[in-house]
Records
---
Amino acid sequence: MIDQASKLRTMVKDKNMDNPIKIYSILSGKGGVGKTNFSINLGIKLQQMGKKVLILDADIGMSNANIMLGMSPSVNLFQAIVGNTSLSNIIKTGPEGIDLISGGSDLFFMEDLNKESQEKAMEALKGLGVYDIIIIDNGAGISKQSLTFTDFAHEVILVSTPEPTAIMDAYRVLKAISIYKLKKQVKIVINQVPDISIGREAYNKLLNTANQFLDIELENLGFIFSDIRVNKAIMEQNPIVLRYPNSLASENIDKISKNLLGNKDFDYNVSSLKQLGNRIIKFFR
Ligand SMILES: Nc1ncnc2c1ncn2[C@@H]1O[C@H](COP(=O)(O)OP(=O)(O)OP(=O)(O)O)[C@@H](O)[C@H]1O
Ligand SMILES: [Mg+2]
């Protein structure tokens, strides 16, 4: 894992300013804290702000981004490669022109493919088109997959609720990131906060513990209020930022999107989609 990670890191250093792309890995310790809802709504907001966004649903076996987006499930990459399905069947375009690919499990079945199929898979990935931003929605907890995507992405956004159990699990994820030296900095979103003071308290708890025990820097990306319209929007299979744009949670996600784009770091460590494909293939060799 460490060896693979260092290979990946070497590749990340390559720059191609012609086709900059920024990859975010969305993580959590505890399950059900709101990663998928955040990922799709963040993606839609960024798309509305003029970025071309791809969501990679990497929650193996439990992928549900398509349901929240009101989209039918896409053929995954593995099926496409094995069944010679065309690329257009892998990518589904959803609301506001956001693209979705169910790719996580496929990438990890890559090891089972013969060399020719691996090459084909990489060619497929490279040919995905040009995106400004890829958002990887991971499954909960620490797994080989989520750590790999964390290493692979340029930035990590760790989502937690203010509950002590969720904060403790978020800390465990930070610890893993720190131990494997995957990232120096992690952005934090505290979701489902009843009020700002509880959100701040939870963030500070995580910050203080990380400062004390880990070699990792945290950045508070923002809070999202607990909002019944999140549940309503999910029931209606219509992302909240579209269905209830004036709701508290939508306003919070809007602010977080602006924080991300306003981030002075936005253009650093960029790489082209082609390099992204190369980075994945390096990992599996
Ligand atoms: N801001 C919020 N306010 C109220 N409810 C919320 C909010 N965010 C998420 N939820 C609720 O939490 C549930 C879980 O959300 P989501 O599926 O996005 O979590 P997840 O972290 O992706 O879960 P998993 O770990 O299973 O992938 C949603 O169905 C919704 O009901
Ligand atoms: Mg999820």
Note: The beta strands are 22-27, 53-58, 92-93, 99-101, 133-138, 155-160, 185-193, 217-225.
---
Amino acid sequence: MNYYCCRFLIPFVLVASIFGCRADTSPPLKIVTTFSILQDFVREIGKDKVVISIVGPNSDAHTYQPTPRDVRQIAQADLIFINGLGFEGWIHRLIKSSGYKGKIVTATDGIQPMMINDPGEGEVPDPHAWNDIKNVKIYIKNIYTSLSKIDPEQAPFYRKNYEDYLAKLEDLDQFIVNAIKEIPQKKRIIITAHDAFGYYGQRYGVKFLAPVGTSTADEPSPKAMASLIDVIRAHKIKMIFVENITNKKLIQQLSEETGIQIGEEIFSDALSEKDQPGSTYLAMIRHNTDQFIKAMRLMQPKEECRSSSVYA
Ligand SMILES: [Zn+2]
């Protein structure tokens, strides 16, 4: 490089790097979500934004006990996403004690909830709306819209991410519809630890049964356990499932009583750690579906396998 080149180029590089530094040090949006599945949705749309989850992978949001660290995280947030439908009963008190005055987005806004009968409270919404991919399309639309409002300059970026993820969700939904069509209706019974798959069951035509209700805080009655044992024997169920967030004891007890096997762990209310098969929502739903199909196929006598009945 000659003298004249250095003379003009060096000041230019200095000025450029100063402006470059300014742009890089502008604080990124800090977004707080309540649980890991919602964190995954927000990351899919926000990509490089800082997205924190109060309840981590393999952890139970139903019975979560907030910590002082959570109060600090919320106090520093630019935006908060919650599931709603009564899932995170602890969140409103936590937000109040943090002094946070920003926007709170309920990601399930616009979803038609399934209503269930809670013995203590009457008719309440089932909070596990994410287990139906059709609902997740509404979650991500709410996320895309909210991020675009708080950060309008990047709205086209969020829109692109939203559209890309929507296409992946539609592909997975279609895969599940096609896979479950191959299973005869009367074999579509799955037993899990808590009642987290009502939306999945409604969407894909599978009946889910569990020893406890829609909250893991519930206690199973001896009557509920006895009736599940009856179902297992009557339908010749060969495989039942533990979930990543629940106590394994009840399913182990059912397995011991009936002599049937426990399948691979499934993911209901939280993602897994990165090295496990449910580390993203798409991976989690795919893994769960593979396990459910494996269990339903085990129930099929050989002649029914060949007949390949199709149910919508
Ligand atoms: Zn649950």
Note: The radius of gyration is 24 Å.
---
Amino acid sequence: MTEFAVRPLAEGEQRPAFDVLSQSLHGPVSTDERWAKRAEGFPAERKFGAFEGGTVIGVTSSIATELAVPGGTTLPSAAVDGVGVRADSTRRGVLTALMAEQLADCAARGEVLAHLHASETTIYGRFGYAVATRGKTLRILKGRARFRDDAPSGGRVRLVGTDAAKKLIPELYERIAPNSPGMMTRPPVWWNWARDGLVGENFVAVHTGPDGDDGFVLYHPQDRRSFEQPEAGAALVVRDLHAANTGALAGLWRFLCRVDLVGEVRAPDRPLDDPIGLMLTDPRACEVLGLEDSTWLRLVDVPVALAARTYRPAAPVVLEVTDPLLPANSGRYRVAPEGATRTEEPAGLALGVDTLAMIYLGDRAPSRLAALNRIEVRDPAALPEADALFATATAPWCGTPF
Ligand SMILES: CC(C)(COP(=O)(O)OP(=O)(O)OC[C@H]1O[C@@H](n2cnc3c(N)ncnc32)[C@H](O)[C@@H]1OP(=O)(O)O)[C@@H](O)C(=O)NCCC(=O)NCCS
């Protein structure tokens, strides 16, 4: 029984759709003042609504970005956000209908990938998404954090005022990123949302190396004093940290660990291989507080996606991919160091399009997923070759909230 219809959102329908989204996330219905502030960042373009009797009951949205894949190529990717269904209309298939429409639209636009951050891990697997990057939350205990003599050094760090930062940081990000698999471009519509919140509400420090500005960090202090610990130094909370090279990364971490009246630096969503711990004389001064899933990736155009990334030296492997939602992706692909193409050869490994997303950026090794029955092994010799082909030198990382 479906009494609702899904279609692109029309001009003038943004505000009720925004309110559905806000309430689905336990937020308020917009006041005129709040809507005036949010309208620019909530265009009708790229949004789909589910309507029942003329009323919006569900919404999904996306922004057009480019996402970096192993080898350095970037691919058009829909960054899916703004997903919500009215609490009185859930579990009737509204999201399922919205996702089908949105994925068909991505394919029609020639977008090769779609990616999102999930509020709950049970939602998106059924639509072909799977975890393709993860992040870790770090705590650096300032009192124990001494940099090794051989840790990269040089360059300098300066604080930048808010108004200057709102112009400088988007330009700097565009120049230095995306520079590793999983990172995405940040289009103007993203900055409309982030300029005031992310940049405007944080301290901004910029690193300058031999070739000019090459890294930045946005952070704010959090008071930790209490009756028990009246002299506890603040926690510096890192909101956004990007560097073009290890020298700039080291310079920014050194700066953060040197700020006065601070007991610890907390940095959520850092790359799994962030090297800060290895730069310290006491690596345990850098604690890992948590590990979170970050990018949920969906391969919208499997042949183009597979052909676009690079592969490491190994014998060719044939993958049989199954994609019930976008059946044009189903089929066999020969993956080799010189590239990936469709083939009629028999497959050594068979997997769903969601599992393919888990190995695509290099986050998981095929053999580990085969051991969990996520990959069917038809030719055992194919498994170590697939591990070698898909391996990457750096851990994939997104580093952009949306
Ligand atoms: C998540 C949400 C959009 C799902 O919408 P929905 O219209 O209820 O989803 P559907 O009815 O199409 O569900 C499809 C399937 O997914 C399951 N599912 C959907 N959301 C789920 C959830 N949060 N937890 C567990 N299962 C969920 C449904 O049970 C259903 O399974 P079935 O096909 O086996 O019956 C909706 O619950 C919501 O708005 N939640 C709050 C806001 C939110 O978390 N948004 C996502 C931001 S990333």
Note: The longest strand covers residues 55-68.
